[in-house]
Amino acid sequence: xxxxxxxxxxxxxxxxxxxxxxxxxxxxxxxxxxxxxxxxxxxxxxxxxxxxxxxxxxxxxxxxxxxxxxxxxxxxxxxxxxxxxxxxxxxxxxxxxxxxxxxxxxxxxxxxxxxxxxxxxxxxxxxxxxxxxxxxxxxxxxxxxxxxxxxxxxxxxxxxxxxxxxxxxxxxxxxxxxxxxxxxxxxxxxxxxxxxxxxxxxxxxxxxxxxxxxxxxxxxxxxxxxxxxxxxxxxxxxxxxxxxxxxxxxxxxxxxxxxxxxxxxxxxxxxxxxxxxxxxxxxxxxxxxxxxxxxxxxxxxxxxxxxxxxxxxxxxxxxxxxxxxxxxxxxxxxxxxxxxxxxxxxxxxxxxxxxxxxxxxxxxxxxxxxxxxxxxxxxxxxxxxxxxxxxxxxxxxxxxxxxxxxxxxxxxxxxxxxxxxxxxxxxxxxxxxxxxxxxxxxxxxxxxxxxxxxxxxxxxxxxxxxxxxxxxxxxxxxxxxxxx
Length: 484
Prior knowledge:
By secondary structure, this protein is α/β, with parallel strands linked by helices. Helices cover 31% and strands 24% of the residues. The strands form five sheets. A seven-stranded mixed beta sheet has the order 8-7-9-6-12-13-14. Strands 18-19-23-20-21-22 form a six-stranded mixed beta sheet, with helices on both faces.
């Protein structure tokens, strides 16, 4: 059968079933549908608070585990089955939905059909920085009284939800901020999620090779972003970071207006001028063709966050927002969880959690922490966990990414059982390369071993930066408990 879903709209839906409902964004989507008067059921494995409470309080009926009976046993057949990105093709419940002819879609497809056709869609895409930048843009719009809808793949420190739909504006062409993920949409739809987001305007922060599990080479990554540019609606705009020569080439033939930004040596129109990093604040001048037009203060450290904020500043200028309100919002933004997030300080040891896993992100995160905490000894703890970092794609680049750290602890990679032997990342090789470069480095085989080893080395005034895009087996909690 043709597995492409039929067209549908919000008014036509009476009942929806969601497979994989326990995820942050899927759960928020379920709660939104309930607010719109749609009956919602869902299935997942071992749903726990806070999402279990959110779903219960929203009136979503939950099935524990994935079983065909979750669908078949329902008295009223769902009008639509939404299948989460984490669901594999061999999932029995998903197979039942497709095999029995239920109308189904992914979450991005559902959003395209239900929410995005009549909104002004502001898509933030790129290998790095898209979660922080989309959170910052949504927050600034909120502070400026615009009441945007937003869909963000992380947990903001400043916004109550990761997924919010202002229902009164869905049909009035108002702003919808979307984090445009280049990862694939679903097991039957192996295209970037942002292919479904109908962009009016795009902020493109960066393009580098990543997601080695679905992109065989850099050209395939570039092709995905080329597709995003062609999808920008007529009369749309693009705000492009010229720090990446490939982006400069990408926009040469763009049919829409392009606003370039980047570092002072990037040939961009908008650049940061004088910058200072003092007393926990980052200040920089905004230059338009080398002429100062504004000055911005951030609570976030690091040159990469200066560029993220500069992109948002440009977007807000193009939207015609009040300049003082924009400046105030930029200054008060506290960031995103797991992006340089302070998790605790015990016995004078500061512990910070960061999502960094790509070597560029590792390098920029450590540089930012060095700027913000120049007096502290910087200790980096890295777990290779992402699909790319568990492969040897960036084996040599990682040895350069840790240069700002005083000590480096590297865990054995997360599950490599499905990776060919010749493609596996080697922690031992990285440790050897770091030691050859004069960097004090250690291998840890588990979270418990790491906690025990690092704790012996720590002293008051140290900063421990834990870098992983996963749970790292509760390493941070275990370290803080041990220090207590």
